[in-house]
Amino acid sequence: MQSFGSILNTGWVVIPLNYVLHAFNVLFFSDVLALPIFKQEDSSLSLDGEAKHPPFQYVMCAATSPAVKLHDETLTYLNQGQSYEIRMLDNRKMGDIPEISGKLVKSIIRVVFHDRRLQYTEHQQLEGWKWNRPGDRLLDLDIPMSVGIIDTRTNPSQLNAVEFLWDPAKRTSAFIQVHCISTEFTPRKHGGEKGVPFRIQVDTFKQNENGEYTDHLHSASCQIKVFKPKGADRKQKTDREKMEKRTPHEKEKYQPSYDTTILTECSPWPDTPTAYVNNSPSPAPTFTSSQQSTCSVPDSNSSSPNHQGDGVAQASGEQIQPSATTQETQQWLLKNRFSSYTRLFSNFSGADLLKLTKEDLVQICGAADGIRLYNSLTSRSVRPRLTIYVCQEQPNSTVLQGQPQAAGSGGESGSGTPCVYHAIYLEEMVASEVARKLALVFNIPFHQINQVYRQGPTGIHILVSDQMVQNFQDESCFLFSTVKAENNDGIHIILK
């Protein structure tokens, strides 16, 4: 065999094959291996499967935890309310999905539950969070810091999702803020609480033939836990210190911590995006209640004979039914003077509202309104603001300037007929409501009533104003008569 020195003398240099291969790998694959996608590649995805090559890649600029075993999914800690960048990267090969070249795509970012058990009860969990944090969102976009996103939208009924358009050919970064923390969805246990993990999921869609972004392109997600401000940093430090104490053999069982988090491919979120991404608002549900005057709020000028003027009859028909839709529930809340809570219960059906306990309602609405709402839901009629008792005298054709007949004493009219009084329940405490309720109870055409007067000292007629109604004593008794107006264009009502 020729010696190495003799080979040098010939002018040829022989390099062992393993050195050649190592140099080749360094030259051609060093940049590729530096990509974190290969560090966190999903084992279920085939590297040689061309059909599974993802068109997009989403990278969240937050470090993964070092306390995750090799074959487990990565876990990333986030601080509540802190802005984190998600880079939206075009990962298509040449010729992939040519129909989106030069066009925008739509992405929906969600924060959802990782635990399957909590996914089944997500609606109830999110509604409970909304009760405790009225007006807040679980997920927000930090728009001033974001780059390349267009037409950002949020849906008030989906507090855990944001959507936007973006151009895959341009640099795009969405900065997200997660406002819920993991321990808010954990029942209290002895020895402290352990927060539940969430998922950050991104679903991307292209336009269909109608121009709507409903054709699914790609979905990816990662596992996170959210801590109070600075809590994620402390947790990351604690995990790192624990790993440093482990032996080299034990460390081999765990993943290293990466500076960024790659969202791995997953199934699209089961909710269809049509209603959410469609630019046109969804139609309001129709009012189809079979209960007579259950939740409808009549116009103040209405004189419909179907609307019962008797307060007792109304109370029996105003109980909310489990079959009530969200719109009917809103109308019921308005009718029963809970207008300040219509936004809070905007997505509640009758069944949802009836499931709430007294303690739930007190916690949501406070002691006074919570107990009142509970009483309303449990068939206890809402006490009206004012109750008056009214009896009609015999019709009198005397004009307004004339003096009406005086009412008889002892609860009888001048002709000796006993006076039968009707209860009028006032909710709005305005003069128009007095006229409307009188018209309904006594079958008087409401549009014919010009004015309502109250007979004062020496028989003078005082115009009944809203302020006068507000100063009526509760359970006052009135006789009233009707007189023709001066030009016979209607009638006036006189309370005595």
DSSP strand tally: 18
Number of H/I helices: 15
Give the overall average pLDDT: 74
Secondary structure category: alpha+beta
Taken from the alpha-carbon principal axes, the silhouette is elongated
Beta-strand portion reads 15-25%
Helix content: 10-25%
Q: What value does the Rg take, in angstroms?
A: 36 Å
The biggest beta sheet is recorded as: 7 strands, mixed
Task: Explain what this protein looks like in three dimensions.
The chain has 496 residues and is an alpha+beta fold. The protein has 15 helices and 18 strands. Strands 2, 4, 6, 7, 9, 10 and 12 form a 7-stranded mixed sheet that branches. α12 (358-365) crosses α13 (367-377). The chain starts with a helix and ends with a strand. The model is unreliable at 1-50, 189-193, 272-317 and 396-411 (pLDDT under 50).
What's the SSE blueprint?
Layout: H1 4-9, H2 17-33, H3 36-39, E1 56-60, E2 75-79, E3 83-90, E4 105-113, H4 116-120, H5 122-132, E5 139-141, E6 149-155, E7 158-166, E8 172-178, E9 198-207, E10 213-227, H6 231-244, H7 248-251, E11 261-262, E12 264-265, H8 274-277, H9 311-317, H10 326-335, H11 350-354, H12 358-365, H13 367-377, E13 386-392, E14 422-426, H14 431-441, E15 449-455, E16 461-463, H15 466-470, E17 476-484, E18 491-495
Parallel strand pairs: 2-10, 13-17, 15-18
Antiparallel strand pairs: 1-3, 1-11, 3-8, 4-7, 4-9, 5-8, 6-7, 9-10, 10-12, 13-14, 15-16, 17-18
Helix pairs in contact: 12-13
